[in-house]
């Protein structure tokens, strides 16, 4: 018995064994001639930070509205917490949505805005007070409950919108480009805040964005959408390091694609080295000769656009560990590029499976 106990080392629950917060099965939605969502299936685990990433018009908002219940699918099925909710109206689903434009009531105080959903649900006054206070604390707006929305900054208004959704204690929080109206610096601050709040509450977030950096930094997993379909679904590392097609390779990161020996290869710019003159590369290294067309100094890094002798053009990124003064001199020069063969991935194979699960 003792030996057995010793063997049973504790393990984190496997992702596929955690209960599903959301299951979408073969869901499609058409608007006239536009197939906005095209046979999408995915499963999201409880407590996951899951992102729908794609360009404008790829069907992100429609998919989110289907999950919230604002739209009914033409076909397919949606489950929340193991229950079929395909025909359940939005107010009876365990979801809440935060929109980009906040949609606050302009003539109500911050506290009244946050309290609104609780009043609608006839919560007792004491419970409402407590939850509003907790909500204000969570989004770091303590002391601002009496203000009108017009007296707040954009970032603060978005916090109110977030608190208003969270006090309803949804099992799944849906966020549609919630930081889209904020400037870059504020957006980055709010990304960290959102991650913290999600971790503290442990609720499932389904987050919509067209910003690949935002998706990579915040998410446990990401579904990349194009034309209403899932092009690839995986962790940020999966998507960046093992894109399965050219669309994903180009949408997440830089589209560094060349054709060699009948294969189509992607090489990430930071995996390519510019060899020093006279440097002998290690055995097995893939080599390409080319001419530097452009040098772009960006502070932390310098980017080189290189036209290859064998055809194609690649971007190379070098970190400026030393001063990059003099990098400009490389413009128009012949250079040799090198990368390990395992750093280039083949995307020429047709994709049998476009989405997992
Ligand atoms: P995203 O949020 O990724 O930008 P949407 O889900 O809003 O994409 O839109 C997907 C496609 O469906 C687009 O072609 C859009 O024009 C179309 N669409 C979305 N909502 C409607 C609607 N209510 N009526 C008609 N077409 C719509
Ligand atoms: Mg949208």
What does this protein look like?
The protein has 357 residues and is α+β, with helices and mostly antiparallel strands. The protein has 2 domains: 232 residues, P-loop containing nucleotide triphosphate hydrolases (Rossmann fold, 3-Layer(aba) Sandwich), CATH 3.40.50; 90 residues, OB fold (Dihydrolipoamide Acetyltransferase, E2P) (Beta Barrel), CATH 2.40.50. 25% of the residues lie in helices and 31% in strands. The chain contains 9 helices and 18 strands. The strands form 4 sheets. The protein has a 6-stranded mixed β-sheet with strand order 6-7-8-3-9-10, sandwiched between helices. Strand 9 and strand 10 form a beta hairpin. The longest helix is centred in the middle third of the chain and has 18 residues. The protein starts with a helix and ends in an 11-residue tail after the last strand. 33% of the residues are buried. The N terminus and C terminus are likely disordered. Bound molecules: adenosine-5'-diphosphate and magnesium ion. The site of magnesium ion has 2 residues, from helix 2.
